[in-house]
Amino acid sequence: MNTLQVIGILGIFAVLVVLMMSRKIPTILALPIMAVGISFVAGIPFIAKDAETFTIAKDVLEGGAMRMSTAIAGLIFGGWFGKMLTKVGVTRTIIRKAAELAGDKPLPIALAFLAVCSVIFAASNGLGMVILVGTIILPIMISAGISPAVSGIVLLLANGIGVTFSVGTLGVYIDVLGLPLETVTAYSWLCGIPLIIASVVMVVIFIKFNGKISKAWAMPAVEPNITMEKGVRTVALISPIIPVVLVFAFKMQLVPAILIGVVCTLILSTPKNPVQVVSSAFVEGIQDTAGAAALMIGIGMTLKAVMAPQVSEILQPLINAIIPSSPLMFILVFGLLSPLAIYRGPLNVWGLGSGIVALLAAAGMNPIAAMVALRLDSNVQAVCDPTNSHNVWVADFTKTDVNEYLKKTIIWIAVSTFIGLIAASFMVF
Fold first, then answer.
1. What pLDDT was estimated at residue 231?
2. How far apart (Å, rounded) are the C-alpha atoms in residues 79 and 114?
3. Statement: residue 160 has pLDDT above 50
4. Which value, in Å, is the radius of gyration of the alpha carbons in the chain?
5. Which of 156, 162, 124, 123 is nearest to 137 (CA)?
6. CA dihedral for 333, 334, 336, 339, sign (positive or negative)
7. Is 47 exposed, middle or buried (0-12, 13-18, 19+ CB in 10 A)?
8. What is the DSSP string of 32-95?
9. Are 231 and 89 in contact (CB under 8 A)?
10. Angle at CA 171, nearest 5°, toward 184 and 165?
């Protein structure tokens, strides 16, 4: 019976992965379906008279919906903070000053935008912020003579770096693996430095060798808001890093760190109608993060299903067989399989990856090693994945095939992932 159940569970995984990759079904729907399907195959009852019995209704659906509450709260508050930065003019002013300092030379302006946008995305990320930043910096870079494709790569790399240090997304790893915030933040640099180095090298090589275009073919000059708006006072430009510093340096929890960031932004920028700014930013922040929050609810249901005693017992032999038993196997397994983070694959933190890594940790793998591996593989997903909404938007804006971004970046990011895994193997094994 166990063999048939293993085949059934793996079959559900495989079918839904194919449906997500082919875009026949969105991930938001696929994950709850997967959670319920796996539960039925494992013999978990939908409801039971005994309140202590693990059921689909009570534990998978109801409990799963609440499973990622820390991550959802961090995401919503992070979206609120991002909207605050936009409404008071901090985001646009930072970009304008970076453009002024870099001048009109392609390489300095690309590296300047890589740096400042990484900081912006660490404060707040998501499709809304990518669109806001992208509509400003992409025309500037293209007007400076950088090709549309390379301009888009700069934006995607900045987003990938920013997400690595984003206080709004750290909650995912806290909820999935049950690790304390201090542990999650302590290993962020290990996950981020290889990506930062790879990003700088990529930008330099792409622009030096094949990333320039004739300015005669460049897009029109920068949008009027950027050159004409007065902006905010210089001291307010530190606002985006306030929550990041509080979380990483002072070990403060996510929500209070973001709330302090909101208050400091108001004090430093002194906008007109501050009450209206705060309230409208909160509502719009929720709107911008609603899709990701819904996805996290699905992830929570999947986690509750795969970690149910019945499912864990069925999958235990299979999970034991694939747990890396040495530093070399840790590097090879998560390095060679890192492309499985794209197309909503089994190592995608916003899909099946959370459940699989949680199972590995539950079966005896060092949870810190599991976290580092998932975060490094997530770099591949954040930058390269053609199914990301921000990749699709960037491709559309720059009139570039979205798969072209995958081809140009996948090897570079995979190599940075290997480097991170090699470094991690000395620290977590």
1. 65
2. 21
3. yes
4. 22
5. 156
6. positive
7. exposed
8. HHHHHHHHHHTT--S--SSTTS--IIIIIIIIHHHHTHHHHHHHHHHHHHHHHHHHTTHHHHHH
9. yes
10. 60
Beta bridge partners of 212: 146
Say how far apart CA 211 and CA 171 lie, in whole Å: 37
Q: What is the pLDDT of residue 155?
A: 96
Rounded Cα distance, 283 and 280, in Å: 5
Given its phi and psi angles, is residue 322 left (phi above 0), alpha (psi -120 to 50 degrees) or beta?
alpha
Question: Which tokens belong to 224?
Answer: 């009027």
CA atoms within 13 A on the CB side of 428: 26
Q: Based on the number of CB atoms within 10 Å of its own CB, is 364 exposed (0-12), middle (13-18) or buried (19 or more)?
A: exposed
Res. 212 pLDDT band, cuts 50 70 90: low
What is the greatest pairwise CA distance in the chain? 74
Distance CA 175, CA 72 (A): 10
Asked if 384 and 402 touch (Cβ cutoff 8 Å), the reply is no
Mean pLDDT of 42-57: 92
Average pLDDT over residues 421-429: 90
Residues, the chain: 429
Domain positions in the chain are 2-428
Question: Percent helix, strand, coil in the chain (nearest 5)?
Answer: 80, 0, 20
Token pair 């309230």 in the structure block, residue: 279
Pair of tokens at residue 406 = 């995958």
> Residue 214 CB: number of other CB atoms within 10 A?
7
Instruction: Kindly report the backbone phi and psi dihedral angles of residue 146, in degrees, each rounded to the nearest multiple of 5, phi listed first.
Output: -90, 140
User: What separation in angstroms does the CA of 359 have from each of 57, 305, 315?
Assistant: 21, 11, 9
